[in-house]
Amino acid sequence: MSEYDAICVGAGHNSLACAAHLAKKGWKVAVFERNPVAGGAVQTRELTLPGFRHDLAAMNLSLFAGSAFHRMYADELKTRGLEFVPVADCFATAFPDGRWLGVSTDVEKTAARIATFSQADAQAWRGLVAAFPGEAQHLFRLLGSPMSARALAATGWKLWRGKGTAGALDTARLLLSSPRAWLDAHFESPQVKATMASWGMHLDFAPDIAGGAVFPYLESMANQSFGMVLGKGGADTVIRALEKMLAAAGGVVATGAEVAEITTSGGGATGVRLASGETHSARRAVIAGVAPRALASKLLPSGSGNAGFDAAMRKFRHAPGTMMVHLALSDLPEWRASGELRRFAYVHLAPSLDQMARTYQQAIAGMLPDEPVLVVGQPTTIDPSRAPQGGHVLWVQVRALPADVQGDAAGEIGPSHWDAIKERYADRVLDRIETYAPGLKDKILGRAVFSPLDLERENPNLVGGDQICGSHHIAQNFLFRPAPGFARWNTPVQKLHLVGAATWPGAGVGAGSGFMLAQQLAGA
Ligand SMILES: Cc1cc2nc3c(=O)[nH]c(=O)nc-3n(C[C@H](O)[C@H](O)[C@H](O)COP(=O)(O)OP(=O)(O)OC[C@H]3O[C@@H](n4cnc5c(N)ncnc54)[C@H](O)[C@@H]3O)c2cc1C
Predict the structure, then answer these.
(1) What is the rounded CA–CA span in Å between residue 185 and residue 193?
(2) Is 322 helix (H, G, I), strand (E, B) or coil?
(3) Where are the domains of the chain?
């Protein structure tokens, strides 16, 4: 048995960032991870063929690059090997009629593309981009602050001081609107609206879900204003650098070390018991980077002592699942709409608000969507180092799938366990890409399919393949994430904290919860 100041359960990037900051502050820290490697949803592996490096899950590191953690530790992370590759041609949508629309960092390039759909929308875009710095300061301050009624009130006050009543109400409306309501108010072209709305589907904001507008807005404006970044050689550059930073500060990451129980005494956390039977104690904090359900149902076998909290953790709502299709290719897709699409990091195949709304609803109802919403990532167009000379990897994210399949909206695949049907559903995904990029199948050298259940097997935090570890709908966000009264990474058990995507400020590789908690515990 070893004794530490703090023990982190799970080596997701939030736990690692938390551990690294605590270690820098002189705490003796250990991180226990059940998998053979650290990183959780941020991993890069040769999933198909030797030499083809695939980001298993997260690929876009823009949130990390813009995070407060990175601002504080950029120099050290760089010396520990962190390397980004900037992306100028960020995201695009291909439409079934052969047209396309893409957002590149040159605003006039983007506006000219938008103008082919609507001159008025091109003007609206320029206006939103010009106003973005003023809007972003309030939104980013909110997202970068510990969540409390006071923080919300302070944001409201600063908003009102900065923008006046009408301006503050505009921001409030943006935060409460559905993507469709907000897009209808600002744009007229269905294609422009669809191109932006596809960002809502990266979370669980289908076009008609209240509170979803802010994500398409922020992603569109941030990509336009700052571009995107990928990790050089793979997204795991972040994890390797964090691990080295932690080790240099005296911290330990133990892999292949599943935590079976968080030990408690007198209403406080005292340490962990591993599945192997080993026990380790923590003097000052146990920091669980796990899904709320696992915390209440598994890691605290006798409960937290607060029945309301335990019930909220067990009932924590998860979003629909995701499937990943990873391809090793002999060449990039030949997009029918334009050769220019080969330069984009993401090509969305989500051609209309109605299609996205239908797909999401089918998934919620347990049906395999007939027309899946696809995010086609082309990392090797930006970073060729991830594949052998001339080769490419394709990162295909299938958004909004049921965890338990009750049927097929296309009436082709019988309801069955994911293990039995995932390859057939992946064929549907590839057929769909093929209609936009004929000849893709002939370029495939290898493929690896991860169903929603496979993703959960890889990382139990991805419950039912939920890539954001919990719905971000308003009723489970802000003060309600993960439950009212517990938005500041606290739990009813003294010295036990919950971090990660299930907690404020939510999913994404932004290290927000881990870093803010570490600062709360050990100072900035
Ligand atoms: C398919 C997919 C694509 C995504 N794409 C992007 C993207 O491009 N950009 C972006 O910003 N975000 C993306 N995300 C979201 C983002 O990756 C996650 O929100 C984020 O990585 C979650 O980090 P975390 O710190 O909460 O922990 P996680 O990454 O969820 O890691 C948790 C870790 O804890 C371990 N663990 C759990 N229980 C135990 C236990 N009992 N004992 C020991 N270890 C345990 C798990 O094995 C895992 O390693 C994506 C997510 C997925 C799934």
Answers:
(1) 10
(2) strand
(3) 2-45+57-83+234-317+469-522, 106-226
Answer positive or negative: Cα dihedral of 511, 512, 517, 520: positive
Atom of ligand 1 nearest to the CA of 322: 1
Q: What is the pLDDT of residues 392-406, one digit of tens each?
A: 999 999 999 999 999
- For position 415, what pLDDT does the model report? 84
> Quick one: which H or E segment has residue 85?
strand 84-87
Quote the ligand 1 centre to 399 CA distance (angstroms).
16
Judge if the upstream peptide bond of residue 190 is cis by omega within 30 degrees of 0: no
Q: Return the half-sphere exposure (C-beta side, CA atoms, 13 A cut-off) of residue 392.
A: 22
Please give all residues whose beta carbon lies within 6 A of any atom in ligand 1, as ranges.
Answer: 9-15, 32-35, 40-42, 57-60, 63, 258-259, 289-290, 322, 324, 397, 455, 459-462, 467-469, 500-501, 507-509
Q: What is the dihedral of CA 120, 123, 125, 130, to 10 degrees?
A: -160
State the amino acid at position 124 in one-letter form: A
Q: Select 2-45+57-83+234-317+469-522's CATH number: 3.50.50.60, 3.40.50.300, 3.10.180.10, 3.90.550.10.
A: 3.50.50.60
The Cβ-side half-sphere exposure at 387, using a 13 Å CA radius, reads 28
Length of the chain, please? Answer: 524
Query: Considering the entire predicted model, what is its pTM?
Result: 0.98
DSSP 369: P
* Res. 473 pLDDT band, cuts 50 70 90: very high
Position 405, amino acid: V
Task: Give the span between the Cα atoms of 290 and 313, in whole angstroms.
Answer: 11
For strand 279-288 and strand 407-408, is the pairing parallel, antiparallel, or unpaired?
unpaired
Give the whole-angstrom CA distance, residue 202 versus residue 373. 10
Question: Based on C-alpha coordinates, what's the Rg of the chain?
Answer: 22
The amino acid at residue 234 is G
Q: Is the pLDDT of residue 287 over 90?
A: yes
Q: Which residues make Cβ contacts (< 8 Å) with residue 333, sequence separation at least 6?
A: 341, 342, 347, 376, 378, 394, 433, 436, 437, 439, 440, 443
Cα(58)–Cα(79) distance, rounded to whole angstroms? 23
pLDDT surpasses 90 at 271: yes
pLDDT tens profile 229-243: 999 999 999 999 999
Q: Which of 432, 440, 362 is nearest to 397 (CA)?
A: 432
- Distance spanning both ends of the chain, measured CA to CA: 30
Strand 279-288 with 373-377, pairing: unpaired
Among 509, 515, 516, 517, which is best to mutate for testing ligand 1, by the most ligand atoms less than 8 A from CB?
509
Residues with Cβ within 8 Å of 153's Cβ and at least 6 positions away in sequence, in order, are: none
Alpha helices (H) along 273-417: 292-294, 307-314, 353-364, 379-382
3-state secondary structure at position 502: coil
Instruction: Give the amino acid at 79.
Output: T
Residue 266 pLDDT exceeds 90: yes
